[in-house]
Amino acid sequence: MATTDACLQETPQLPTPLLVTGGAGFIGSHFVEHMLLMHPALRIVVLDKLTYAGRKENLADVEAEPSLAKRLRFVHGDIADRALVGELLKKEHIAAVVNFAAETHVDRSLHEAIDFLNTDVVGVYQLLVAARQHNVSRFVQVSTDEVYGSVESGASKESDPMEPRSPYSASKAAADLMALAFFTSYGMHVSITRGSNTYGPRQFPEKLIPLFITNALEDRPLPLYGDGKNVRDWLHVRDHCRGIEAVLMRGEAGSIYNIGGDCGKTNLEVTEAILNIIGKPTALIRFVQDRPGHDRRYALDTSRARRLGFQPQTNFELGLRQTVLWYRDNVDWWKSVIHQDKDFRAYYERQYGNRLRNGVEALAESGHGE
Ligand code: NAD
Ligand code: DAU
């Protein structure tokens, strides 16, 4: 990975130590690694509940490198536990918080959203309260482009109204509003990042790219929702981390920053690219019944973050190839989940069983997609 980021020049004082919540998840674990590598004086405390999506082994590379490991502390716990968070902030003299902790999968939120409310809304509130009580100097809330809702044309600006359409995005939008309220009401230094669809190593194999890579590697069908023409803006995980880093270091209090890859692609284009890299036939693609309320297109105007020095650096084809190689080289990381984890098997059956057995036409007729 490049280490000459424009956004790292003229480095202002970075608050340390940093509390990174959700740091054992996909983006959080890359952020921890990136920040420890780029900032030799930085200490990080990770707080993570280790839900199905979080794993301590996601921090194994950091823990294997003594110069990084000695600056990292891991704490198992829930952001919604105000007493625990308060104690941690006090004991560790935490200077700033970056909150990645969340329930993150749209399809799961369509089955049942109570965990989304408990973490993405109540958890964020509890974290804000504790951070305020302990005079944390900066708080970055990691949010998503999904809060804007579907955009048929053009690109969402930070000043656009939020129109979330899934239980997941509604919970993230609520958190954005609460975080902004802490700026307005109490003058807390809160900034919000709204990132686009992120891909790279260590993403849980329920999301489009890792699910389709792992299915294709095992010659299993790739369930593409609807007509496959929904558009997402793809952002490499390291670029997402660089954007959050720029906001942590230079973001204004009370401001929102879009972090995107300027890389809009249909799901079908992404699927074909995966199959092409792995060398598997397009016959593996199955068009299945659509996700209910499926947002057609996301796109972000990132000019505000670019003024902070953010610029995506990873070419999509190269980033995707590198991601495929990672899954090919780390089969133990995902095979145990896909084949042995009972909860994952149950989720997969609920989400895809009928879709794959019946095909899109049969399901559309019966109305029993879910
Ligand atoms: P992920 O699902 O891989 O990881 C989430 C992490 O949060 C896990 O380690 C989990 O154990 C932890 N966690 C969940 N509930 C918790 C709680 N109550 N207390 C403490 N830890 C808890 O998620 P991700 O894809 O890395 O996303 C991280 C953040 O970035 C989320 O806030 C998400 O909304 C946002 N985001 C993700 C994307 C994307 O494409 N993945 C894009 C934009 C924004
Ligand atoms: O846009 C940012 C968001 O990106 C994040 O906030 C979310 O946390 C993250 O999960 C992601 O949400 P999406 O719903 O866009 O990601 P997902 O990988 O689930 O789906 C990407 C697209 O692929 C979407 O249009 C639905 C489609 N899809 C997904 C799956 C899992 C399929 O066609 N088939 C599938 O099996």
Q: Can you walk me through this structure?
A:
The protein has 370 residues and is α/β, with parallel strands linked by helices. It has a domain at 4-199 and 236-260 and 297-314: NAD(P)-binding Rossmann-like Domain (Rossmann fold), CATH 3.40.50.720. Helices cover 45% and strands 15% of the residues. Helix 1 (26-38) packs across helix 9 and helix 4 (82-91) runs parallel beside helix 6 (114-133). The longest helix is centred in the last third of the chain and has 25 residues, at 342-366. It is globular, with a radius of gyration of 20 Å. Bound molecules: nicotinamide-adenine-dinucleotide and 2'deoxy-thymidine-5'-diphospho-alpha-D-glucose (DAU). Residues 104-106, 144-146, 196-197, 207-208, 211, 223-225, 230, 232, 267, 291, 298 line the site of 2'deoxy-thymidine-5'-diphospho-alpha-D-glucose (DAU).
Quickly list its features.
370 residues, alpha/beta, Rossmann fold, 7-stranded parallel beta sheet, 3-stranded mixed beta sheet, disordered C terminus, binds nicotinamide-adenine-dinucleotide, binds 2'deoxy-thymidine-5'-diphospho-alpha-D-glucose
Give the name of the CATH architecture of the domain at 4-199 and 236-260 and 297-314.
Answer: 3-Layer(aba) Sandwich
Q: Could you tell me the number of beta strands?
A: 12
In this entry the ligands are: nicotinamide-adenine-dinucleotide, 2'deoxy-thymidine-5'-diphospho-alpha-D-glucose
Largest β sheet strand count, sense and barrel closure: 7 strands, parallel
Radius of gyration: 20 Å
H/E topology pattern? EHEHHEHEHHEHEEHEEHEEHEHHHH
Strands of the largest sheet, in order across it? 3-2-1-4-5-6-10
Beta content comes to 5-15%
CATH class assignment of the domain at 4-199 and 236-260 and 297-314? Alpha Beta
Q: What's the pLDDT, averaged over the residues?
A: 94
Poorly predicted residue ranges: 1-9, 361-370
Q: Which structural class is indicated by helix and strand composition? A: alpha/beta
CA distance, first residue to last residue: 41 Å
- CATH homology superfamily of the domain at 4-199 and 236-260 and 297-314: NAD(P)-binding Rossmann-like Domain
Roughly what percent helix? 40-55%
Query: What is the third-level CATH name, the topology of the domain at 4-199 and 236-260 and 297-314?
Result: Rossmann fold
Total helix count? 14
The gross shape turns out to be: globular
